[in-house]
Amino acid sequence: MLLHLLRNLFFFALHIDNNTVFPKPLSKKDEEECFILMASGDQKARNRLIEHNLRLVAHIAKKYSSSQAEQDELISTGTIGLIKAVSTFDYTKGAKFATYASRCIENEILMSFRAAKKSAGDVYINEPVETDKDGNALTLMDLIDDGTDIHEQVELMLRSQQVYSFIDQCLDKREAEIIIYRYGLYGNAPHTQNETSHILGISRSYVSRIEKKALEKLRKMYDRSPF
Known about the structure:
single chain, two-stranded antiparallel ribbon, 2 strands
């Protein structure tokens, strides 16, 4: 499930401009309409909910960051929490989505801080790795049976194959390396910008610049694709 979310974050990143100006929040009516459409399988409605709540992610990430580079990375981490929130929120209960999403986003950021303090090879069965429908942390034990949707996996596989071909076509070696390490492509584990900088022996700020440049190249190719 976590790898699925990270891959979806990668595809979603291809459709977000790098100017850090995020769309305004949706009205309550529009937000509810999106959840209704999403419940019937509308992917565009789901993406719209994510896109129009990125401002909330940026606001929360700013509280925990000490530099622009760190804020960019925490926005990526927080967006995973936002995707989880959109996927698990029950709009029929009348709760405010922003409140629920804030909790999921903050949980994701805090979990990333805890994970950073541990060695990369350590896995704990009681480690929080997910949030439930109420925004509470779930452990690896809770997720052994995650009820994976095979149709979603097939769609993700097809989209992955397309992006892999785009990587080969338009990215140079350094750009491809950074995208592969950052988003866990080709069977690799996903890495933070800091981890990627250590692996490749370059600065974190350089990783951030190259990542943005590579995503922009992929975004343009993705937009031109009929898929």
